[in-house]
Structures are given as C-alpha cells and as structure tokens.
Write a structure and sequence with these properties.
transferase; 2 domains; Nucleotidyltransferase, domain 5; six-stranded mixed beta sheet; binds acetylphosphate; single chain; about 375 residues; binds magnesium ion; about 40% helix; binds adenosine-5'-diphosphate; EC 2.7.2.1; alpha/beta
Length: about 375
C-alpha cells in the first residue's frame, strides 16, 4: 500500500517520481544536465507540489560484490556505498548526495537502495571474468558486474507481458545517456556489455565505451596524460561528445541529417558498435527471439533502431519501418517475415525501484 518516492540519478539527469500503490506515477520532476551532486535545496525545490510518500527508493548504480539485492539505508550501508564511488564516478556521488538530501528533507522516512548491478549478480563465470592475473581477480576483486539492471528487470517482465509468451532468447538494448545491452534467458542475465564500471561496451553520450586497453597504457606513458585526465577523457569527453561535440543524440542526428561530417561519423561509429554487440549478445544466447529497445534513445530515435537492425538481417531480425517511425510508448515494431520480435518499451526503472523498496520494507 506504500506510496514511494523514487530517486533515479542517471549520468545526465536526476529523475524524481512519486508512485502510488498501483505503481501509477502521480508526481514527477526531471532535473537535467545535473553534474556532480544534488543539494538538499535543489531537491526541496524539485519536490514542491509532490504529494505525501511513505518511503523513498533510490536507484544506485554500483552495489559492488556485497549488494546482490536491495537494502535499507543505514549508516553502515552508506559507508559501504561510499567505498564504491570510484567504480561509478558519474553516478555514485550523485546518488549518495540524494540520500543525504532526503535524510534532511524527510527525516524518519525509510529509504531503500536498489542496485543496477543486482540483476547481473548471477552472470555465468565465463561472462563475468576478465582474463587478467589471478591476483588481480582474487585480491582486488576485478570482475564484470554489469549495470542498468533495474531497467532490464522491468523490461524483461514487460516484454513477456506484451508478447503474451516467454520472450525466449532476449536481448535488451538500454540506450540512454549511458548505454548497454543485456542477454536474458528465463529472466536471468547471461551476458551484458558493461563490466567492472559503467564505462565498458557501447558508445555513450560522454563515455567512450570499449577501447584497446593497450591504448590506456600508451596514453599514460607517452600521451602526456595523468590518470585524472585519462579518466575525464574516457568518462566525460568521449562517446558522442568526443566524436561530434554534442552529447545529445537528438542534436547529433539532426546535424547528421544536415550532412555534418563529424555527426555522420559519430552516428556510424555508434551504430557499428551497437550492431556488433547485439550480435555478441545473441551469440551468448545461441540465437535471438526477442529484441527490446528502451532508454531515451532506444525509445525516441527510430533511426537508431533502424540503423541497429540494418545489417542484422542474418539474425532474422526485420523492422516494420512504418511501425518503427510511429512507435510511441510500448510498441511492437516487428517487420513481416521477421524471425525476431522487435519491441520498443518505455524505461520504467522507477517501477522496479518502487517494488524493491516495498519488498525491503516488508522484510524489515
Ligand atoms: N524525446 C526524445 N527524442 C529523441 N531523443 C531523446 C528524447 N528524449 C531523450 N532522448 C535521448 O536520450 C538521452 C537521455 O536518455 P535517458 O535514458 O533519459 O538518460 P539517463 O541516462 O540520464 O537516464 C538524451 O541524451 C537524448 O539523446
Ligand atoms: C549505468 C548508467 O550508465 O546509467 P545512466 O544511463 O542512467 O547514466
Ligand atoms: Mg538512465
């Protein structure tokens, strides 16, 4: 019966949603372009006019090795989350600041933390392990975690509901400011494109995604960069912004349409990587039955969906161009003769967070 205030600190936004006990969003506010942290003052202003709530649920990107499910916020939990800051530098400080702000604004209201990493906690060892020295893996805990799990958990359920059957070998593309893919079977993650941090994999708004690890060593030794500059280049000045000067796919796509050469290349690099990784996820599943697009770009950019499927005909995936261009909200965009169901789903991380928050409170 609990009304839950959900705080979703993404890399490019802070999204506040108040959900009633039916998971209907009754109040909502987005803070966009938020860098670094969120102050209590900003949070208080954003919450003006929101109705009453009984609990608060936070999306926290990194749960490290310890948090494989949601937890109630306690001083000890906060201490453990603070230790993970460098593993998700664009997200973790913001989420912690949000928890702190709400402890001041709504003292006594229970707060839960729900993790992006939890959905991938059961990744098969072959997908979770980097081929690095054993002492790094054992002493430093170097492994692949995976992220966007709250979005994947919701989308996997919703895909089954919409398709009216088990989605089978399911690949979900969460394409927002951050972007990743998950290979899902029977509701479980069997592979994903992000790793130890949310920097691995696809080209993102400001993150490079995959680069040759040898490049990093070379840049430190010969590129005149220190580790802070290397971090900034990969996390904040790479990806679409590094390729085109714009971090927002809307602007990049508009410039590409107008023939801007950097923007054309930016879209090509983005799509080249996306297609390659969709095929890799399909390989982890031994085939592909359902492909889902979600996240700001996945939901709102038909040209990115079309571009991703262009060249993936060998997987049996075809798009209905008209349905793809017209898709609003949750929609099926499968083309005729396609052996793969293609769906567009609105990302609803807040639903997953609200449900996990209620579960955590009940278990208290
Ligand atoms: N209405 C829209 N039309 C086209 N693109 C959009 C739209 N809304 C969002 N996007 C794209 O989605 C990106 C943000 O995705 P989102 O999932 O909201 O990000 P975050 O990672 O902050 O949660 C924007 O940078 C933009 O490129
Ligand atoms: C994990 C991650 O990259 O999240 P977001 O896309 O919200 O920045
Ligand atoms: Mg997001």
């Amino acid at each position: 019966m609990t009304r839950v205030l959900v705080v979703n600190c993404g890399s490019s936004s802070v999204k506040l949603r108040l959900l009633d006990h039916h998971n209907e969003v009754t109040d909502s506010h987005d803070l966009t372009g938020v860098e670094g942290t969120v102050s209590a003052g900003a949070m208080e202003e954003a919450l003006l006019g929101f109705g009453a709530f009984d609990a608060i649920g936070h999306r926290v990107v990194h749960g490290g090795p310890d948090f494989t499910g949601p937890a109630l916020v306690t001083p000890a939990v906060l201490e453990r989350l603070r230790a993970l800051t460098d593993l998700a530098p664009l997200h973790q400080p913001k989420a912690l600041a949000g928890i702190d702000a709400l402890q001041h604004l709504a003292p006594g209201t229970p707060q839960a933390v729900c993790f992006d990493t939890a959905f991938h906690a059961g990744l098969p060892a072959a997908a979770a392990t980097y081929a690095v020295p054993a002492r790094w893996r054992e002493r430093l805990g170097v492994r692949r975690y995976g992220f966007h799990g709250l979005s994947y958990a919701y989308a996997a359920r919703r895909a089954a509901e919409l398709a009216g059957t088990d989605p089978g070998r399911l690949v979900i593309a969460h394409l927002g400011a951050g972007a990743s893919l998950a290979a899902v079977r029977n509701g479980r993650s069997v592979d994903t494109t992000m790793g130890f941090t949310p920097l691995e994999g696809l080209v993102m708004a400001t993150r490079s995604g995959d680069v040759d690890p040898g490049l990093l060593v070379w840049l430190l030794r010969h590129g005149g960069l220190n580790q802070a500059e290397l971090n900034t280049g990969l996390e904040r000045e790479g990806g679409l912004v590094g390729l085109t000067g714009d971090s927002d796919m809307r602007a990049v796509a508009a410039r590409a349409d107008a023939g801007d050469r950097d923007a054309v290349l930016g879209v090509e690099v983005y799509l080249h990587r996306l297609r390659a990784k969709i095929a890799a996820m399909a390989a982890a599943l031994g085939g592909l039955d359902t492909l889902v697009f979600t996240g700001g770009i996945g939901e709102h950019q038909p040209r990115v969906r079309a571009g991703a499927l262009d060249g993936l005909g060998f997987l049996g995936a075809r798009l209905d161009r008209t349905a793809n261009d017209a898709a609003r909200g949750d929609a099926e965009v499968t083309g005729s003769g396609s052996r793969v169901r293609v769906l567009v789903l609105t990302a609803r991380e807040e639903v997953q967070v609200a449900e996990e928050t209620r579960t955590t409170l009940r278990a208290r």
